[in-house]
Amino acid sequence: MAHGSRLVDLVHARLEEFLAERTSILRSISPDLDPLTSFSGRFLSGGKRFRALFCYWGWEAVGARGFDPFETGGRDLFPVVSAASALEVFHAAALVHDDIIDNSDTRRGAPAAHRLFEALHADSGWAGSGSDFGRASAILLGDLLLGWSDELLDEGLGALSDQQAARTARAEFIRMRTEVTAGQYLDILEERAWLTQPGSEQRTRAERVIVYKAAKYSVEAPLTIGGAIAGASVVQLSALRDFGLPLGIAYQLRDDLLGVYGDPDVTGKPSGDDLREGKRTMLVAIARERLAPGQRRLLDELLGDPDLGADQVRMLQRTLSECGAVDEVERIIADNVARATAVLADAPLGREARSELGSLARSVSRRTS
Asked: Which of 146, 138, 52, 33 is nearest to 360 (CA)?
């Protein structure tokens, strides 16, 4: 994973450079805008950079250059590093908006953006509602980050000599943006409309949310954007999709398990946070299929209660586990990882990249945060 660590360093440097440039622009307008850039820096400084890594290895898988781009002056790395950085900024925007939607207090063990602005309001002694100011300001921060992700992508694509590759990469990015927004809406919808939907459809509907809210934008789209920048053929893009989608599903299913059972010291989120938020995940859909009517009613009554106590969370955790839902989700994760890695066996992609993608598949499906 030497290339991966060097890519992460380049993305970090690119983000710092870009943020410094945008800080200068905002500062020229007013120093009152400093919180926008300082809070942006917080959300862009952490994370596992999985999307950036998938973008790079999609690029490398298609290019199969036969030389180390990091050791040859990085002459053709700028477009893919910029695209990888754009994906990280897009992800930060999505997290800011997601925390507002979910009314989450924390992100990666620190206050969510709307809580940071709320605290700024309180500390400054300003008029009006602190929560209203925090929410409105965080929405604008998310919007600003979305715009910045476009700027980063365009700067990278503008450096490509192959304009068809640039157009294809841009189309992949636009498609990703539409799909994740649609998936986010479907997620919100399921939390509220599940009661009116046939029980037999809830697993299918939960999977649809996984595919469009997370799987495509977390794994598939970064791979195809990177591949497109390298001039991927239709067959190569298809192989990247065939690998990326099942792995993205496994990635999100692991996230769903962590949202219920994760160690808060590792995840940066309170234990059982998804239970308090009422997430209608695949885990919940499977449990509802397996539970007796009385247990199912109790699950439905408690799920989504923001005031769930520790004992109630532990009881729900036991219920989900003892009915076999957790074991089934683990089997689905393993099946999807197997589907993804099987694609790599004879995909028309570079050998080293296929090996690294196999390693990434294991990392994202077994992670603890």
From this structure: 52
